[in-house]
Amino acid sequence: MSVSLKTGAEPFRSGSQVLQATVFDYWRWSGSNLMSNRERSILGEFLVATALGLEKKPRIEWNAYDLKSGDLKIEIKTSSAKQSWSQSKPSPIRFDIAPKSYGWDEETDTTDVGVKRRADVYVFCELHGDDPLDTDGWTFYVVSTAVLNQRVPNQKSIGVKPLMDLHPTVSTYADLKKSIEAVNDSPASQVSIEPHHSPPA
To answer: Please, are residues 157 and 96 in contact by the beta-carbon 8 Å criterion?
Structure first.
């Protein structure tokens, strides 16, 4: 079944009768809480997609990786100490890095079986600001999957401090495309002594 981007103006129908509600109304009802764990996760994927110019195709829900830029497969994980509910203290920042036992490929409708990480690069998105729509309130950490496999092969999740021990490329939204490309172009097994930072504009 082919899926294309909707405009939001498409109406709901009851047979041939056009109803008042539109797809935009549904989006507003279902997705306005951008601080919820699910919506923030999808928003992180969207930010990476827009940085790479990949937002013209609809999001794929169950693929083995989140985005594909050329041949580069990208996994995106999002976390925040701030939540949409009343908090007695900030939530711990944790990112899922668990190898998965299988992965479905949307392009071929095939399933790859075996416990592993199927992306080439991971982008960890930390929201530290109060407004998830302000890209200045996000920090992005880019790490090659080869480094994760070398340093934390069986680990299921990771916090910011141990993530920094892997010397990720730390990026702003404006430099994210360059940062992802730089990590992808670097030798897969190379781990530098100091953390990388985004290349200058």
So the answer is: yes
Domain of residue 120: give its range.
Answer: 34-197
The verdict on residue 116 lying in a domain is yes
Q: Is residue 21 included in any domain, yes or no?
A: no
Q: CA 26, CA 123: separation in Å to the nearest integer?
A: 29
Cα separation, 63 vs 112, in Å, equals 11
Query: Would the pTM count as exceeding 0.90?
Result: no
Enter the tokens of residue 114. Answer: 């075996």
- The full DSSP string for 38-78 is HHHHHHHHHHHHHHHT-TTSPPPSSBSSSEEETTEEEEEEE
Dist. CA 148–CA 189, nearest whole Å:
10
**Residue recorded with tokens 């490929």:** 105
Average pLDDT along the chain, 201 residues, taken 10 residues at a time? 90 97 97 95 98 95 93 97 90 96 88 94 96 97 97 97 97 98 72 41 39
Taking the C-alpha atoms of residue 26 and residue 64, their distance in angstroms, rounded to an integer, is 27
Q: Is residue 44 part of a domain?
A: yes
Tokens for 141? 């950490």
For the beta carbon of residue 3, count every other beta carbon within 10 angstroms.
Answer: 9
Which among 163, 165, 161 has a CA at the least distance from the CA of 77?
Answer: 163
Report how many domains make up the chain.
Answer: 1
In a domain, 24, yes or no: no
DSSP annotation of 155 reads: -
